[in-house]
Amino acid sequence: MKPAKKQRLEAAGLKVGSADGLLALTPEESTSVSLRISLAEQARSRRRRLRYSQTELARLIGSSQSRIAELEAAESDVSLDLLFRALFATGAKLPLFLVLHGSHG
């Protein structure tokens, strides 16, 4: 945020800070939220690049259009399994670091 805007908001009596601070997220929770948002953005970007509708992607992965919309909005009740299925259906590959480090907890 630009410093001038921050000053105007604070002068109006508003509290300015990060979402992490406002929601009192732990570093782990913040990382989890950021990862979910990033993956959801990738899923939407890949779907659009392939010119699939949400309905077409839903059909490919055995879901519904409304769940794809929720997935792309990074809704917390959408499973990571569904998110990964959408990514893989659009051609995403598992990052090497997950393959190498995934079983070492």
CATH class of the domain at 21-91: Mainly Alpha
The percent range for helix content is 55-70%
- Number-wise, the strands total 0
What are the segments in which pLDDT stays under 50 over at least 5 consecutive residues?
A: none
How many helices?
Answer: 7
Question: What structural category characterises the helix and strand content?
Answer: mainly alpha
Q: How much strand?
A: under 5%
Shape: elongated
SSE topology string: HHHHHHH
Supply Rg: 18 Å
The largest sheet is:
none
Average pLDDT, rounded to a whole number, is 85
- State the end-to-end CA separation: 37 Å
CATH architecture of the domain at 21-91: Orthogonal Bundle
CATH superfamily of the domain at 21-91: lambda repressor-like DNA-binding domains
What fold name stands as the CATH topology of the domain at 21-91? Answer: 434 Repressor (Amino-terminal Domain)
What features would you describe in this structure?
The protein has 105 residues and is mostly helical. It has a domain at 21-91: 434 Repressor (Amino-terminal Domain). It has helices at 3-11, 19-23, 27-49, 54-61, 65-72, 80-89, 96-101. The protein is elongated and about 50 Å long. The N and C termini lie far apart (37 Å).
Would you spell out the secondary-structure blueprint of this structure?
Elements: H1 3-11, H2 19-23, H3 27-49, H4 54-61, H5 65-72, H6 80-89, H7 96-101
Helix pairs in contact: 3-6, 4-5, 4-6
